[in-house]
Write a structure and sequence with these properties.
Elements (H helix, E strand, L loop, with lengths): L12 E3 L24 E6 L7 H16 L3 E6 L1 H4 L9 H15 L6 E5 L5 H10 L4 H5 L2 H12 L10 H4 L1 H11 L12 H18 L39 H9 L17 H4 L5 H13 L2 H12 L5 H23 L3 E3 H30 L9
Parallel strand pairs: 2-3, 3-4
Antiparallel strand pairs: 1-5
The protein binds tryptophanyl-5'AMP.
The site of tryptophanyl-5'AMP (TYM) has 26 residues, from strand 2, helix 1 and helix 8.
Amino acid sequence: MAENGMRLESGAAVSLSSGFIPFLSGASEIRGSMATQQKIILSGIRPTGRLHYGNYFGAIRHFLRLQEQGERCYYFIADYHALTTVTERQDFFQQTVDMLRTYVACGLDPVKSVIYRQSDLPVTAELSLLLGMVTNIGHLERGTTYKDKMSKLQEDPRAEGNPLSYGLLGYPVLMAADILIVRADIVPVGDDQRQHLEMAIDIAQKFNHRFGDILNIPHGVGRDALRLPGLDGSVKMGKSESNTLDLLDDPAAVLKKIKAVPTTTDPLPLETESNDPDVVLPKMPPGVGVLYRLLSLLASEDVYVDFLGKYRRGEKFYGTLKKSVAEYVSAFNVPIIEKYNDSANTEEFVKDFLRTNAQKVTPVALETVERCRDAMGIGHSLYRA
Ligand code: TYM
């Protein structure tokens, strides 16, 4: 999906933020000496379209926080995982470029974090295979993502072209491999990924139980993890639900989307004195709840509380609320859009960038896989040094 229509022949211009340049200096290695005190952070996002507010507030803002805390951060573009939902060839390279640009535009710093593409670490697929040996198939079949997909297929025969695949069933195993291969301690993800992380922990524990204390067990998703509802008021904002507010939406697109948020129901009694969004928002009509969630994420507490007062008093104010939310969203997006459009790099530059970063994560990944091979008894690969 080459949204900006750029050509990908060797040397052709591929737009990418100039923020990438320091990546290639190898400067992130300077942090090696601090390695013992650092926590290892890992997370990934599928390159399946533009990044939306769920991605940002569920995951990326935590990527930034952990990066600024000086932890050892690995953030990757999950292109193998994106394959689980495609039925025909897609331009994943261009989607990867778009994603890199957005990552950097959001503030991910190539000097401080290692940003790589999942398929540049193919040894992850080997670890996934090894982990598959300790993974209970019933456990995978009970996965909510898999079950949702199965029920959608049963409801909609037109979805036949995209059948339930082994890849989809094994999605959590590959995700476990991503996490365990770098020995991650913390995996910043949104609430929707809670079950996947629990599965990764379970797989690691089973492996260690059978084969010795080889894999690092990461922490689970914190209780405060966010699940941002969709602009249509449904439970989750998601790329495949077409209900997203995107980081690259310009002010006109933002206004149009916010105006379309369903707010036909008048304020309902809140039955609580609390202003905590987690307490109050579920008591509101769904569309209104989304607007308040956005306000709580973007505006000052005073503004949020002021609007909550209007809701409590049952004033007619949804129009003002929408206008205000649209302004906050646009003010948040504009600098990201500017940085995204900042500069251009060649395809060769991007490939070099990806190669350099893959090289930074490969040693730890190979070491983990060799340890697992050895623990299971097949020993070291003769094809690797
Ligand atoms: P993906 O691309 O679906 O989502 C990327 C990140 O965005 C978060 N997110 C949300 N958070 C809150 N509210 C929402 N509505 C919302 N929508 C998306 C997700 O929780 C996620 O953090 N399986 C992962 C990709 C992955 C991965 C990994 C993540 C592959 N391997 C290893 C961590 C570790 C995913 O679903 O991406």
